[in-house]
Amino acid sequence: MVHCSNENFKWVKQYSLLLMKFLNEYSWLTEAFVLDFFTENHWNKLPLCWSSFLSNVGPQELGDWLSEGDISYKQVWPLSLQAYRATVNALALTRKPISSPEAVYLFLNKIIPGHPHQEVPTDMTKVSKIKWLKAVNEFSATGGQHVNLEHIFRRRVRPKKQHEILRLTQVIDLVLKQIQCDQVIDVGSGQGHLARLLALGYHFQVATVEAEEQHVSGAQKLDEQALSHMKKKEQRLAYSVEEDISNELIEKYKKFPVCCHEPPKHLRYCVSASSTPDDLLQVLNDSWPSTKDNFFNDVTHFGLVGLHTCGNLASTMLRLFTETSEARMLLSVGCCYMKLDINRATLEALISKYYPDKRRYGLRSVSHADRITFTEYVQKALNRIQLYIPDKDVNSSWVASYLEQWEHVVVFYSLRLLLAPVIESLVLIDRMLYLYEKGIPSLLIPLFDPDMSPRNQVLLAVKVPDPPEKQASASQPKSSSLISQV
After folding, report:
1. Could you tell me the strand order of the sheet in which 2-4 lies?
2. Please, is 332 exposed, middle or buried when counting C-beta atoms within 10 Å of its C-beta (0-12, 13-18, 19+)?
3. How many angstroms separate the Cα of 146 from the Cα of each of 70, 173, 204, 211, 433?
4. Is residue 8 helix, strand or coil?
5. Beta carbons within 8 Å of 63's beta carbon, 6+ residues apart
6. Is 0.85 topped by the overall pTM?
7. DSSP 97
8. Residues sharing a CB contact under 8 Å with residue 243, sequence separation 6 or more, in sequence order
9. 274 by DSSP, 3-state: which?
10. Distances in Å between the alpha carbon of 475 and those of 161, 328, 333, 471, 478?
11. Are 185 and 305 contacting, i.e. CB atoms less than 8 angstroms apart?
């Protein structure tokens, strides 16, 4: 784990400079779009000793080398190639996951004056009881479902996301309780799986923002199903003990709804570069409209979370977090790496020939591209746009010769992809430095099992409140500054 605060800021800054220096040396590789493999002759950009050697290395041997698995070397690999891999592994943030949220607790203990708010023995005992296993051991052997999640939180949730949302929720639960916060905004919430677990499983007040209407309506339907199941379960539990309760208490109990859980409030809204702190507060106000008996209209602070935030959403969340005084916690997980195959690189050569102004055109993704012919791939990829490629070229000998070079594309793409953890490390460290400049300490946590969730780095930031003595002396503590100036 890496944390950025006063005591180690210089180290974090130096680490970022090392990352930038290394990536600058290989900018010819990072700036080479694999899409342009044929149109810009990327293979010839490799050092001659690399291309000559790798032309004779099979995919299995390459895969073993990239993953540093057991490999019986049939020939001597170029020293510069070995150094490239070793430097990547040395510079990238570790992906070995933590085994419990205890490290997060210790981070909070270090940065928050007067922490913990609860008694240490009781609170630490609860934290230490949470132990995270390897992902393969978290799922049942029969149904392949997470053994520590109720089935209402597993509904239409893939095992990878089950693994992620449970660990995230346990961390969020720990942090929000320590900073005495009970409201959350889930940005880019999708079908609302994380928000549902936070609201119905951990009893936080959760609002979600999602740009796609179908995701919003889908999340609401899943909420209804979860509430229906919980209500039936609680009714069965309540009536099973009626014989041990007086009739007077039974009648009094029946006056109240059995299920009092509050589901997430789902809003359709697109968070963008133009979004402001007022927009975030409006989300809370729209979720819990101001009424005489509604305490939600008096927003003191809330947490901001985002799981697999794509594009510019992560950086926008970061800015909104720093600019919104009421936002006390940020928890952000990046999106997945992009994929590319030999068919797309070959099709790009055809597009460049007939439509040079359409280079790098955004085409629809094609499922199972490795299981269909190139002709079928072209038809499906160009199905929704007005681009026509003559069949004589699609089935030409030169296109066939490109397709035969699939191993070269795999090799080049793999060498480039090897840099992805280093690039991701620099992006995350840069975000930590940005937060530090705003007076906000942060922590990078390898939270997930990388075998199941490769993008396992979670960025956690918590605004440091005033010391207890200053809070006590303030005439209006709710309006006091939340960030200590550095």
Report:
1. 2-4, 442-446, 457-462, 327-334, 302-309, 183-187, 205-210, 265-268
2. buried
3. 31, 19, 22, 29, 36
4. helix
5. 69
6. no
7. P
8. none
9. coil
10. 45, 21, 38, 8, 9
11. yes
DSSP code for 139: B
Per-position DSSP letters for 367-386, written without gaps between them: TTGGGS-HHHHHHHHTTTS-
Among residues 31, 26, 15, 12, the alpha carbon closest in space to that of 91 is found at 15
**Token pair recorded at residue 339:** 């994929």
C-alpha distances (whole Å) from 195 to each of 204, 266, 294 are 9, 9, 21
Return per-residue pLDDT of the chain as tens, 486 residues: 899 988 899 999 999 999 999 999 999 999 898 889 999 999 999 999 999 999 998 888 888 888 766 666 777 899 999 999 999 999 999 999 999 998 898 888 888 766 555 444 445 667 778 889 899 899 987 888 999 998 899 989 999 999 999 999 999 999 999 888 999 999 999 999 999 999 999 999 999 999 999 999 999 999 999 999 888 877 776 665 555 555 554 454 444 444 457 999 999 999 999 999 999 999 999 998 764 444 445 567 899 999 988 778 899 999 999 999 999 999 999 876 555 567 888 999 999 998 988 888 878 778 877 778 999 989 888 887 878 899 999 999 999 999 999 999 999 999 999 999 999 999 999 999 999 999 999 999 999 999 999 889 999 999 986 655 554 554 444 433 222 322
Q: Within its chain, how far is the Cα of 374 from the centroid?
A: 33
